[in-house]
Amino acid sequence: MKIVWLLLLGLLAYLVWRSRIFQDTLPPPTSEPVPPPQVTDMVSCAMCHVYMPVAQALKGQHGSYCCLDHLQQSEPS
Questions:
Q1: Which of 16, 20, 35, 44 is the most exposed place for a label (fewest CB within 10 A)?
Q2: Are 44 and 58 spatial neighbours (Cβ–Cβ below 8 Å)?
Q3: Contacts of 43 by beta carbon, 8 Å cutoff, 6+ apart
Q4: Residues β-bridged to residue 53
Q5: Is 56 helix (H, G, I), strand (E, B) or coil?
Q6: Quick check: is 33 in a domain?
Q7: How many domains does the chain have?
Q8: What is the C-alpha separation between 52 and 71, in angstroms, rounded?
Q9: Residue at 32 is within a domain
Q10: In a domain, 34, yes or no
Q11: Domain containing residue 49
Q12: What is d(CA 45, CA 37) in angstroms, rounded to the nearest whole number?
């Protein structure tokens, strides 16, 4: 019975030792705030309905398009 208690005590000491080693190796937390992600307006393609940023969309007479092919297919010259 003493051997079981000694094994449990040894296991507990090992786990405490391991947890202290891992706490010492962790980098300290930074106090700098994380900036929020940039928010941009989105628009969907009038042909395939894929959303893209407004800055990347091609403007047509009937809406915005994701690529030149969709613009030409929907609005022939």
A1: 35
A2: no
A3: 51, 52, 53, 54, 57, 64
A4: 42
A5: helix
A6: no
A7: 1
A8: 14
A9: no
A10: no
A11: 2-27+39-74
A12: 24
Structure tokens that stand for 7 in this block: 């094994």
Beta bridge partners of 51: 44
Tokens 């092919």 label which residue? Answer: 69
For residue 16, which phi and psi values (nearest 5 degrees)? -65, -45
Place of tokens 């893209």: 52
CB 41 within 8 A of CB 49: no
Residue type, 20: R
Give the model confidence (pLDDT) of 35-76 as tens digits: 898 899 999 999 999 999 999 999 999 999 999 999 999 887
Radius of gyration, alpha carbons of the chain:
31
State how far the Cα of 28 lies from the Cα of 72, in Å rounded to an integer: 56
Distance of CA 27 to the CA centre of its chain: 21
DSSP secondary structure letters along 25-55: HSPPPP-SPPPPPP---EEE-TTT--EEEGG
The verdict on residue 13 lying in a domain is yes
